[in-house]
Amino acid sequence: xxxxxxxxxxxxxxxxxxxxxxxxxxxxxxxxxxxxxxxxxxxxxxxxxxxxxxxxxxxxxxxxxxxxxxxxxxxxxxxxxxxxxxxxxxxxxxxxxxxxxxxxxxxxxxxxxxxxxxx
Length: 119
What we know:
Blueprint: E1 5-11, E2 21-27, E3 59-63, E4 70-77, E5 80-89, E6 92-97, H1 103-115
Antiparallel strand pairs: 1-2, 3-4, 4-5, 5-6
């Protein structure tokens, strides 16, 4: 079993009679995130395009670990999904996106990317 860190959380306020009550909360161990596998010799090339403002809000559903210079995010909005690639460099971040896809195809693209079968 993993070690859990603890934190103290304050409950309520004077309106509910719990003013100053404290509880102990178990926090999960820190987790970096998923790392992308090395690129395979035979791999598909993803057509990365500049981001387009197709919607007001995009929800990041999954992401890779941000300990690397390149981060991949599976984003959703309006019933469609895309994979966003952010490459961080000293001169700034370069963001590119895949095409908007239905959920099953976007999840498959992300799986290929994580396994090194697409880049």
